[in-house]
Each structure stands twice: as structure tokens, then as C-alpha cells.
Amino acid sequence: MAHNFLTDTSNETGAGLPKDPKVVIDRFLDAIWAERGLSENTLGAYRADLLALNQRLTSRKVDLIRATRADILEYISWRVDGGAKPRSTARQLSSFRRFFRYLLREGVIAEDPTAQIAMPKIGRALPQSLTEEEVEALLGAPTVADPLGHRDRAMLELLYATGVRVSELINLKLSQVNLNQGVLRIIGKGDRERLIPLGDEAQDWLKEFIEGPRVEILLERQTEYLFPTRRGDRMTRQAFWHIIKRYAKKAGIGKKLSPHTVRHAFATHLLNNGADLRVVQLLLGHSDVSTTQIYTHVARERMKELHSRHHPRG
């Protein structure tokens, strides 16, 4: 049961607040544990963050409960000066936010000192990509003599040729494919529509699949979905994720792979081969070019890697 600061009078100051900041922290942890059932690790991280803040405040003769925005900013900049990374700072700030919001809710403080503090920007991890050789090996992994293997090959070809999202791929309907014009009509996030050109290779695999193996998979059943399962249903994201993992293993690709990795490869290889960033943005369906820009970093890293491999001294 969470303690209420306003009714529990043990170990309190004249103002009706616990004297010991550690008691305050423990009460907070009891309360969030009761509300959310958090793990021991999470609670331990909150405790460590708050005790570290309290220690710094105590050395500056500031009471934890009466900490102001300036006090918290001073603590953050002191830690950053000491070499703290943005991710670690963001985690601590998140702990402080939850703590002071709790005090605010309990009526202990009148305003939250963390409310106007912005989260530090955390550099996004570069998406892992595949080399062009690895993509070839992945595309060649399905056994195309089998109708389901042919379907998988067509899906992989389409994924690499267009960079569509997995959700867009599994929800693709026959009516969205125009083989005469060689384009896909994709309904993306926020119901935004985009047209994506299909390369000859992807068109050939699709045409072959629609005319033969797809009919064999469906038998007498009907579905509007382009890539049905053996039961004639729409494929799930999980099922396609397992398909990719299976073929990656078969192709001898040691990297952790997901359908998104193939989307990354599509974007990176286009940029490596000189495509314009705005064009790649349109093809991927990114509403903001800054999302697409992350692929230029991947392309740049790859070029650096190749350069050092071919020019070890350069």
C-alpha cells in the first residue's frame, strides 16, 4: 500500500514532510510498484538515479523535495561535464520526471521542476544493412519449384525492389499491382498513397507468380491479397519474419535479419549507386526527409569501409 505524505506523520518535519529523502524515495518506489508492478531492475534504476541526485543536492545544501528546475539542470550539466552519455542522461531525467510528478499528484509540491526540461537528443542507431552479395544470396534461397517457395521469392524480390514496409507488403492486394505500367500503388502510414516503379526482375517474378504458383496455392479459394498463405489467408507479420529468418540462415547470412533490414538495404544500395535523397524519401514513403537521411550515414559508413579495405593506408 502506498503511503500518503499528508496522512502519515511518522518521521516528519514540521511541514508534514518526511525528514529523510531516502524515506521519500522509498515511498515513491512503493507507490509506483503498487500501481504498475515494475520489475526489481527498473525500481533499482529509479532508486540509484534519485539517490545520485539527492547526494549532489545534499552537497549543495538543497533539499530533494524543494529542488528547482535550476537545481536539476545543474545536476544534469555536472554529469554531462563528467562524461555522461545522452542515453544515460535521458534515463535519469525520466526517473526524475516520474518522481516529481508523483510528488505533485500527492500534493507535496505545487509545481514539477522537470516539466520544462527537454529530453536530450539521442543519436539514432544506424540500421544494419546487407551487402549486395548478401541480398543476392537471400533472394536465391527459396526453392522456386515449390509454389510457396516461388511466393517467398516474389515477396523478397518485391521487398528489395521497392523498399515497402512489411505491413504494406503483406496487405498488398492484386488490385494495387499494375504490371502494364510496372508500378505498385501503396497505401502507407496515415493513408498516404504513393506509386512505386517496379524493376524488370521484380515484374517478371510477380507476373510468373500470379499466373501459376498463386493459383496453385489458392486452388479453388478466392482472396484479394496478393501473397496468400497455404490456407488462403493473408500472411501475418510474424509469419513473414520467420520466412526471412529461415532464408537468411539458408543463405549463410550471420547478421540478425528482419524484413526491415531488406528495406534498409533497398535505401542504402540506391544511395550508394547515386540516387537522390528526395527520390529515396518518396519511394520509402517518409513524410520527413530527416528520417531518410539516416540511410545516407549508412551509405557513407559503407563507402568508408570499402575505401579502407581497398586502400588500407589511405
Overview in brief:
The protein has 314 residues and is mainly alpha-helical. The protein contains 13 helices and three strands; from the N terminus they run αααααααβββαααααα. Helices cover 55% and strands 4% of the residues.
Looking at this protein, list some descriptive labels:
disordered N terminus, single chain, 2 domains, hpI Integrase, Chain A, 314 residues, mainly alpha
Task: Walk me through this protein's architecture.
- The protein is mainly alpha-helical and 314 residues long.
- It has two domains: 1-122, DNA polymerase, domain 1 (Orthogonal Bundle); 132-310, Intergrase catalytic core (hpI Integrase, Chain A).
- Helix content is 55%, strand content 4%.
- It is built from 13 helices and three strands; from the N terminus they run H-H-H-H-H-H-H-E-E-E-H-H-H-H-H-H.
- The protein has helices at 21-36, 40-59, 69-81, 86-105, 132-139, 147-162, 166-170, 200-211, 213-218, 237-250, 259-272, 277-284, 289-310; strands at 177-178, 183-187, 193-197.
- Strands 1-2-3 form a three-stranded antiparallel beta sheet, with no helix packed on it.
- Strand 1 and strand 2 (183-187) form a beta hairpin.
- Helix 1 runs antiparallel to helix 2, helix 2 packs across helix 4 and helix 12 packs across helix 13 (289-310).
- It is elongated and about 80 Å long.
